[in-house]
Amino acid sequence: MLINLKELPQGKKVIHTVLNAGEIGIKEHEKEFELKGDVETEITFIKSRTTVNVRISVKYTLKLQCSRCLEWFEKKYHETESFVFREGEEKLKKEQSLSEEDIYTYFYATEEVDIAPLIRDIIILSVPMKPLCKPDCRGLCPVCGKNWNTGTCEHEGNLKPVTKLSKLLELKDKLSR
Ligand SMILES: [Zn+2]
Ligand SMILES: [Zn+2]
Question: How far is the CA of 89 from the centre of ligand 2 (A)?
Fold first, then answer.
């Protein structure tokens, strides 16, 4: 999605558009998630003499796999991120430490900038490291694999699902003996 920053009028301009996975550069079936349907996009440009502030607001639905029970579930997202484009070449020295503002500052020497990779980054960054179908997902039985959200098995009550915390408690128990 190419935008000609030089041709943008001074002041504010809002673009509403609907983009699909291909237009954003996301595969419909990524390894960790699926993008379900289209991405509702609102882009607000505020142009001054040498800078263009770009605020991108996106609505989309992801299909994610629960890290505890391994079931796939859908989650709606509404994310907003701001970026700054400055005319000219980047003058930042490598040794300079980057502040948060710098990270989202882009320099444009060419007239056209592609907005699609920015939208792609917003979506990729919103994918949780350990998705949960619900906050209190009970997970799978470590012995027989029964999904404890949908029923019980003979091992329930004798066992807790294996978590980092349960491993630590086990270790503490051993050490204190
Ligand atoms: Zn789950
Ligand atoms: Zn079981």
Answer: 61
Contacts of 132 (CB under 8 A, 6+ apart): 66, 67, 68
Instruction: Quote the tokens at residue 176.
Output: 């204190």
Closest-CA residue to 149 (of 159, 134, 163, 160): 134
What's the CA-to-centroid distance between 171 and ligand 2, angstroms?
A: 23
Q: In whole angstroms, what is the distance from residue 63 CA to residue 69 CA?
A: 14
Q: Which residues of the chain carry a pLDDT beneath 70?
A: 28, 89-105, 107-110, 159-174, 176-177
User: How far is ligand 1, taken at its centre, from the CA of residue 70, in Å?
Assistant: 6
**pTM of the prediction?**
0.75
Query: For 100-131, what is each residue's pLDDT tens digit?
Result: 555 566 766 667 888 999 999 999 999 999 99
